[in-house]
Amino acid sequence: MDEESETTHYYLECEGGVEEWHWNSKSTKLLVELYSERRHRFRDPKTRKRALWTEIVDDMEHAGYKGINEDICDRKWRNMKKTYRTCRETLKKNARKRVGWEYYDTFDDMFQNENVNSTTAKTESDALIEEQHNELSDMQCTLETDNNTLRAEQSNDMTMVAEEQQRQLLILERSRIAAIRELSKRIEESNVIQRERNDLLREYLSQL
Question: How far apart are CA 71 and CA 85, in angstroms?
């Protein structure tokens, strides 16, 4: 059995530890089918590859494969393309050699045949450069998204701090007003007592 038909394990860093995601024959076949449906869009330089991987992730989740993400699919696909290129180079050296990789014909149809029939076929180096360019573009988009998220979180944090400060000031102001009212009440009570004493004193003096 070749390496791509066996179960492949991916370990992902996540909150609280590490999660493991498994590729098997069915999930790999579905990945190939979903990519094949979008292969022309993947070649379009105006199309963000990350967005296409997101579509594939959504379809795979809908098919019951939970916990998968764009990075897992992209990494798996790159490994499969490497396997395809290795098989193709082997056949170039020895055309009689049998290829045991079950996805070779599918990949050959997607990549090799189109390159041969196209008058604007790209060399391996051109394809590699384009692939690296797409990777950098996706990484840049991811970084921009992360930066925007960070700025939004920082803005939210500052807003929360300002709101908390206002709340504390409001509590202090209410406490100050309550203290003033209590002091005024006690002063008034003291004045009442003093007036009563004065009245008693005047009454006593008038009787002398």
Answer: 21
Residue 123 backbone zone (phi > 0: left; psi -120 to 50: alpha; other: beta) = beta
Q: The pTM is what?
A: 0.50
Task: State the burial class of residue 84 (Cβ atoms within 10 Å of its Cβ: 0-12, 13-18, 19+).
Answer: buried
The domains of the chain, with CATH numbers, are 8-121 (1.10.10.60)
- Report d(CA 13, CA 182) in Å as an integer: 59
**∠100-104-107 over CA atoms, to 5°?**
170
Long-range contacts of 116-120 (CB under 8 A, 24+ apart): none
| Rounded CA separation 203/36 (Å) | 110
pLDDT in tens, 28-49: 999 999 999 999 999 888 889 9
Strand partners, 22: 9
- Which value, to the nearest 10 degrees, does the dihedral of the CA atoms of residues 72, 78, 81, 87 take? -100
DSSP letter at 24? -
Length of the chain in residues, anyone? 208
